[in-house]
Amino acid sequence: MVYLRGHHLICLRFFQGQGYDAAFLAGVEEVRQRLAAGEQIVVMAGPDAVCRVCPWLQGDECTHPETTDAGIRKMDQAALEILHLTPDSRWYWPQFTPRELESGFAEWFRGFCRECSWRPACQAHPDFQALLKKIGEEALKS
Ligand code: SF4
């Protein structure tokens, strides 16, 4: 089982090999391989399989300078609402396609992607570009 927090269910979808350091990248790649192999996802709150290899995790708190642990948890909650999941939901990566994101993507983009420093990395992903195209520029302004 792979334990993942809410916002990683979305952000990992657009991961293309950028990250904080070599250990983080190796850890995320391992997670991605397990997901691609069909291992079951257990949705959780708090630090997950990705956070466990992240240099910003201190104890059980995210210390990333762009946000706060409370901010990260708010993002998790928003992601779960968009995906209609709750902590403890079971899920499989192959069943998660960009389609699942279509209805909530404008809100997600406005709330979290627009100011995120990882946005250029995600925006280089074809699925991200397709979602942006779908919601249209107008939807991003309000
Ligand atoms: S500890 Fe924070 S910055 Fe690191 S992966 Fe988790 S949420 Fe992201």
What does this structure look like?
By secondary structure, this protein is mostly helical. It has a domain at 2-96. 46% of the residues lie in helices and 11% in strands. The protein contains six helices and five strands. The strands form two sheets. It has a three-stranded mixed beta sheet with strand order 1-2-5. Strands 3-4 form a two-stranded antiparallel ribbon. Strand 3 (57-58) and strand 4 (61-62) form a beta hairpin. Helix 4 packs across helix 6 (126-141). The chain is globular. The model has no long low-confidence stretch (mean pLDDT 92). Iron/sulfur cluster binds at residues 50-51, 54, 56-57, 62, 64, 72.
Key phrases:
single chain; 142 residues; mainly alpha; three-stranded mixed beta sheet; two-stranded antiparallel ribbon; 46% helix; globular; binds iron/sulfur cluster
Short description:
With 142 residues, the protein is mainly α. The protein has a domain at 2-96.
